[in-house]
Amino acid sequence: MDYAKRPLWQWIALYVAIGGVIYAGIYYFFCGRKGGYTVNVLGSKTNEWTIQLNERNASGEFGQVTMTENKGKLQVKVETAGEPSGITQEVGIYIGQCSQTQTLKYPLSPLVNDNSQTVLNINWSQLVKDRPLAIGIRELGAEPGVYVSCGDI
Known about the structure:
Layout: H1 8-30, E1 39-40, E2 47-55, E3 62-70, E4 73-81, E5 89-95, E6 103-111, E7 115-120, H2 124-128, E8 133-138, E9 147-152
Antiparallel strand pairs: 1-2, 2-3, 2-9, 3-4, 4-7, 5-6, 5-8, 8-9
């Protein structure tokens, strides 16, 4: 087979096809799968997101927040480890990131015995349109207002 005798348009078509396949692969692997919070739960219309809580101010307290959207409401479940026993701590969704959280946007139920559960009358889309946001846990006892754990949404 003599490749030199192919018409120019066939070479252009071949290179365009190869370029299209490469572009589609790059888009799929690097752009198309972003926004990795959504996890569908076995065919239902329920979505679930998990945010990791990291220790702040040498508190030793960390955990995770699970947000589940169902029927337009967001259930927020906070689970931690390392909380001092018998201490109640304030939990909320704050405007900003963990490095500079300040203004309380949505108060959540206080953290008691490493757990907190709250139902917010908003959905995930309404929540994330106000990003950057963070979920923070703050001391109420000896050092009020000091963040002991935080996770960026």
